[in-house]
């Protein structure tokens, strides 16, 4: 039995896992239920900022306050919500904001593009998941699924890189201003884990395609015969030669 279905099935599980992890991060800040109400990118002490909550958490959709149980308390959602503390999109003031955030649009663009890239990654990952069903029985299906999965991997890697750059720098800026800050372990872990799953799935889809090709090539070289059929064929031919030899000995004695 060819190992292609095993590789393809494992790839499907990995892609499904990546999609689930991305969905969980996307739902953080939009759905106030466990476990998504514990998912955020950055938490900072914003008690010194006028009009801000004592603790603020940034998600894909908004800035959330924090409950006594450590859960997100989020309001209205806004797609591609940026990390831009001094602007009107966040706090609308420069008081209590570190100088590294003022006069720059770097964090705004990093976090805005991150949202667009994660949606593209999720789209191609879902397409690869559905097309991957054909990889169970087709070499072409394996290669096509690997191609779509590689696109998802590319954009997911960009998303994870932008997320790390923006929010780690943001955390450092808050700390430099004597404000306690930390990154969200769930969101960072999920996004990088999704990238790893897509990487493994891409490789395994390729392996499934190559394995299928080698199997067909071997069958073509052997003429579709197995080892036992060849052995049986040789034995039959040998028995025929032996019978012919016995016949000649009989004729000589006669």
Question: Would you kindly provide a brief summary of this structure?
Answer:
By secondary structure, the protein is of the alpha+beta class. It is built from 5 helices and 5 strands, in the order αββββααβαα.
Q: What can you tell me about this protein's structure?
A:
- The longest helix has 38 residues.
- Helix content is 61%, strand content 7%.
- The chain contains 5 helices and 5 strands, in the order H-E-E-E-E-H-H-E-H-H.
- With 254 residues, the protein is an alpha+beta fold.
- Strands 4-3-2-1-5 form a 5-stranded antiparallel β-sheet, covered by helices on one side.
Write the layout of secondary structure elements.
Elements: H1 4-27, E1 42-45, E2 55-58, E3 63-66, E4 72-73, H2 106-135, H3 139-176, E5 181-183, H4 185-221, H5 227-253
Antiparallel strand pairs: 1-2, 1-5, 2-3, 3-4
User: What is the alpha-carbon Rg in Å?
Assistant: 31 Å
Strands side by side in the biggest sheet: 4-3-2-1-5
Average pLDDT reading: 87
Dominant shape: elongated
Q: Count the E strands.
A: 5
Helix/strand order, N-terminal first: HEEEEHHEHH
The biggest beta sheet, please?
A: 5 strands, antiparallel
Please give the alpha-carbon distance between the first and last residues: 55 Å
Task: Give me the secondary-structure category.
Answer: alpha+beta
Task: Provide the β-strand percentage band.
Answer: 5-15%
In which range does the helix fraction lie?
Answer: 55-70%
